[in-house]
Amino acid sequence: MGVSLSCSSYTMEATNAIEKLRAKCLERGASGIKGLARFFRRLDANRSRALDADELHRGLEEMGLALEAGEAEHICRQWDRDGNGTLDLEEFLRALRPPMSQARKDIIEAAFAKLDRSGDGVVTVDDLRGIYSGQKHPKFQSGEWTEDDVFRHFLDNFDADDKDGQVTAAEFLEYYSGISAFVDTDEDFVAMMTSAWQL
Hints:
By secondary structure, the protein is mostly helical. The chain is built from 11 helices and 4 strands, in the order ααβααβααβαααβαα. It has a two-stranded antiparallel sheet with strand order 1-2. Strands 3-4 form a two-stranded antiparallel ribbon. It has helices at residues 7-27, 31-43, 53-62, 71-78, 89-96, 102-115, 125-128, 138-141, 147-156, 169-180, 186-197, and strands at residues 50-52, 86-88, 122-123, 167-168. The chain is globular, with a radius of gyration of 20 Å. One of its GO terms (molecular function) is calcium ion binding. Residues 31-66, 67-102, 103-138 form the EF-hand domain. This is Calcyphosin isoform X1.
């Protein structure tokens, strides 16, 4: 007779494995979690945005972030949204990032609101036009890009994988949650955002 673990036990073990993996990623500095995200997106050859426990385990080993046997399975079970034995890659990567304080979320929302002139919850080139100038960008000055091209490339920094020229509040928050992981205090993070977005 096999040993069965309750859902709460799996959740606890998956949480412990995530904490261990998060610590290992943060030891690598600013590129730790971002590098892991790029690496796993590359492993996801079929673009399913999902990995099975074996792919996760092998990938972590390749990156020198090996977990103990079974920890990858616990992580997969925790983020297996449809019961097919794979983890949802984006949810997993979000879980790796340290949680943000309300002060950090508030300043990110304020910066997004400043960009989102139309107030529709999505920042587009149209929102940037007339407020920001791309005319000092070297590729604009060389004639290689139009000002809209400059804006589009700017938005691509915050955009998720699809690079559709539209940045949602969730994508903006996701981008800054990666940066937030490497700023020690709320005061420093708020000061950085205030300066960067002239809030």
